[in-house]
Amino acid sequence: MSKKKRLVFSLLLMAMGLLLAWRILVVGLGDHFARKAQLGDKEAVDSALMWNSNNPKALFLKGYYLRDKDPKSAMELLRQAIVLNPGDGPAMQSLAWLLLKQQQPEQADGMMLLAVERMPASKTIHLQAAEYWLSRGKIDRAVENWATALELDSKLGARIYPMLARLAENPATLGVLKKLLQAPPPWWDDFFEYLATNTRKLETLVNVATLRHATEKPLSGRERELLVERLQKEAQWPEAYLVWINGLTPEQHRYLGSVFDGGFEIPPGKGGFFWQFPENNAWLIRRKHTYGSEGEKSLHILYKGSNTPVKQVYQYLLLGKGEYLLQLRFRVDRLRIASGLHWVVRCAGGEERILGSTTPLVGASDWDLQQLHFKVPNTRDCRGQLLRLEISDAQGDSQSVEGEVWFDRFSIRKLP
């Protein structure tokens, strides 16, 4: 190769290098100013486009800023951004809103659907889509986007659950939740808990639970527990008992009675009409076998000698009007307490008035029998009852207790 040709080739390479360097500089500066614009510097948008008129981020932001002042120019800029970046969901959603304002609903709907299709893993895209569909009156599509957003980020429940609850509270819109009711998503129990806790009308929760029950997938244990708890809170004791009993396993059905599992043979369940063993550092509650147990287990409570809450082990009951006899076996081992422990039967509503209480336990004794006659009145505040172990004649909310007690074979029968 001659010197002249080598010189031409070298100049050509140098020109190409300079052109490439310039291009890199232009693109880099464009991206730099586009990033500044994304952080809130509106003036940086024009700088980004000055350096690179084909920067898709800058085109989107420019179009977004012009959406109110100059919608036609904004739409053109957004279209350019989408051509340069076909996966730009935010640009598509901004264009969808502008198309809707320009009375082009079909094109707007298509653009919104495309945005979700291109960015299915973006919770922000789904939230924006839900807002759009609400404005279009297409609530079912909004619910679909909310559902997906919640699957992407369960923390969005604080934002979305209130809106779903409002749909559930209105009989005219409850039907849009049908797909969720038929195939509950992973976050459904959390929403049901929100509904059980926050809805003003019990009817709303019952309606949702009824629709869930009618599907092929039964109520979850958590749903049933929350429904029973709300029914009890509303003093709907027979209804609560019916929901609870329909959720029992065949094994649990074996221990049904006026007192459920009076021999403490199976582990306690959650809520409802199961035995409840409150957790507290002052005691250790266990089901254990000991000499004199009539079955495989008895209830054992070890008190550690610290301040002990007055209210302890309990179970809700459903007894009709009439006179009853409570019987139970007990054993006391070095129980040191000022006033004693006793079992109390109360009305479960209102002020929990006492229907009767056993003789207080203290000191030591071998296995023995206790009985309590009590009468259930036919009053609204006593449709449900509460059987609870308490500190007798307690002054305040706690008292020092040390020692052990055992209980077994609880039963309640109605007297003629």
Please describe what this structure looks like:
By secondary structure, the protein is of the alpha+beta class. Residues 17-34 have low confidence and may be disordered. The chain is elongated. It has a domain at 283-414: Sandwich (Jelly Rolls). The chain starts with a helix and ends with a strand. Strands 1-2-9-4-7 form a 5-stranded antiparallel β-sheet, with no helix packed on it. Helix 9 crosses helix 11 (188-198) and helix 12 (202-213) runs antiparallel to helix 13. It has helices spanning 3-38, 43-51, 56-65, 71-84, 89-101, 105-118, 123-135, 139-152, 157-169, 178-182, 188-198, 202-213, 221-233, 237-245, 250-253, and strands spanning 283-288, 298-309, 311-317, 322-336, 341-347, 354-357, 363-376, 385-391, 398-414. 35% of the residues are buried. The longest helix is centred in the N-terminal third of the chain and has 36 residues, at 3-38. The chain has 15 helices and 9 strands.
